[in-house]
Amino acid sequence: MLAAALLVIGMSVVLTLDDPRLRFGPYLAGFGLACLGWLGLMRTKPPPPMMLIIGLGLALRIWALASAPAFSEDVFRYVYEGRLVWQLGPAAPFIHPPEQGPALHLAPELLDEAWLRINHPEISTIYPPFSQLIFALAGGLSWVFGHPLTWLKLLLVAADLGVWALVTRALKKDGRPAHLSLAWGLCPLVILEVAREGHADSLSALGLALGIFAFTAARPQLGYVGWALAALAKLNGLVVLPAAVRSTRRGLVTGLAMCSLLATPWLLAGPSAGEGLAQYAQRWRAGDGVFSGVLHLSGWLLGGPWARFGDITLTQHQVARGLTVLLFAALTLATLYRPAAKAQIPARAGTLLLGLLLLAPTLHPWYVLWLLPFAAAAPNFKGRRAVLVLATLSALLHHPGWLELTEGQWRDLAWVRALVHIPVWAVWLWDLAPKAKSGYASAATRP
Q1: Which string of b and e fits 174-207 if b means at least 16 CB within 10 Å?
Q2: Which of 169, 196, 297, 417 has its CA 20 to 30 A from that of 340?
Q3: How far apart are CA 10 and CA 30, in angstroms?
Q4: What does pLDDT average to over the chain?
């Protein structure tokens, strides 16, 4: 099959490059070819056999597992924090940023090459309890068997395969073909960002997929459990919970009880537990689209990068982030204004997440993994095509790493970000406007 061949050839190009950051052109070519094959497989008639899909997905994951992380150092922080808790306790990642490692009299193996590659070592962890639990499990296994990076990536791939199984079950429960699950299972972005890069977003995607399956199967209590689990992995479950609350309260108490575990870091580490999150909220900006326009608007409103109002100083970034929160609140109100049937909960939740990522000041390629379970299995999700386009174009957002290596400067080019965001918005708005489409179609058919 041509589509399968394109997928394999494209992934072969990507996974055989010794450093994709230095060879960014061939990387993009290989990734684009793989995505063409992936999208083609979803449109193949008749659909490919599930055994072929599963076998291909497993083979590509095994190959990616053997490849070193290329575009992100996040996984090295996971490795360090997962081993740190075994020596200093579960509060340690929230109290001690990695740069303090030498002063803590840690075991020498903790200050290895993984520790040296941690990005922003001056900042303490931002990862909630479920993610920390998985990091610690990998760290414990590595004390016994060695190879901490391998154990961690294996656990994250196990979560990734759990997502695939859950979206497949959701599709079957809804009476739709199981092969639609390859929107997750054979997505090149999923395989590379989890099995090669080792991103913990597969953990939050596992909770989101559990929620999609449960709400599709009319099991709201389990759905709340899934989305609370997502929040305990990376907080994104808090964004989708309102979609469930608007339609059913059954299971809400369970979900809130689980979400209360988010307070655990503060109970263990005190006020310092939130410093990493505060730094992230204030400083991070990468891969954004709409936020760039909001930032320019904020500068115009303030008359510069900052302004004083009495004793209060407001910066351009503070105003922009506040306006972005208001924009997302407006999207949430518009999405949830009318009550909907329980079957519509996953589609509404997917809409909220898609809007969040397109409005936010930070969009990394691995964040798109949050959306792909919805594209694979959420019934009547009108953002499906936009998510698939975003998953295909998101590799462009790795370009600052390439520029840093080749030019010595981290630059996030506005025109590259536009190449990602504009097509996604265009496809999403087109799919949200069925009346306009039908009117256009009827006009086009008139003599």
Answers
A1: beeebbbbbbbbbbbbbbbbbbbbbbbbbbbbbb
A2: 169
A3: 4
A4: 92
pLDDT in tens, 2-56: 999 999 999 999 999 988 999 999 999 999 999 999 999 999 888 889 898 999 9
What is the tens place of the pLDDT at every residue in 85-123? Answer: 999 999 999 999 999 999 998 888 889 888 899 988 999
Residue 124 CB-density burial (10 A; 0-12 exposed, 13-18 middle, 19+ buried): buried
What is the pLDDT confidence band of residue 435, given thresholds at 50, 70 and 90?
A: low
The residue type at 282: Q
Nearest to 142 by CA among 134, 152, 130: 152
CA distance readout (Å), 132 to 95, 201, 347: 14, 13, 29
Question: Cα 283 to chain center, whole Å?
Answer: 19
SS3 state at 307: strand
Residue 19 and residue 69: Cα distance in Å, rounded? Answer: 9
Rg over alpha carbons for the chain, rounded to the nearest Å, is 22
- What pTM was estimated for this model as a whole? 0.94
Kindly write down the DSSP assignment for every residue of 158-179, as one continuous string: HHHHHHHHHHHHHHHHTT--GG
| Residue in the block written with tokens 């998985």 | 134
Residues 6 or more apart whose Cβ sits within 8 Å of residue 314: 302, 306, 307, 308
Fill in the DSSP letter of residue 290. Answer: H
SS3 state of residue 105: coil
Exposure string (b/e) for 376-392, b if CB count within 10 Å is 16 or more? bbbbebbbbebbbbbbb
Rounded CA-CA distance 206/229 in Å is 8
Q: How far apart are CA 307 and CA 302, in angstroms?
A: 6
Q: Residue 309: in which H helix or E strand, if any?
A: strand 306-309
Return d(Cα 256, Cα 189) in angstroms, integer: 32
Q: Is 339 left (phi over 0), alpha (psi -120 to 50) or beta?
A: beta
- 5 forms bridges with which residues in the sheet? none
Round to whole Å and give the CA distance between 167 and 170. 5
CA angle (155, 159, 161) in 5-degree steps: 115
Q: CA neighbours within 13 Å on the CB side: how many for 402?
A: 17
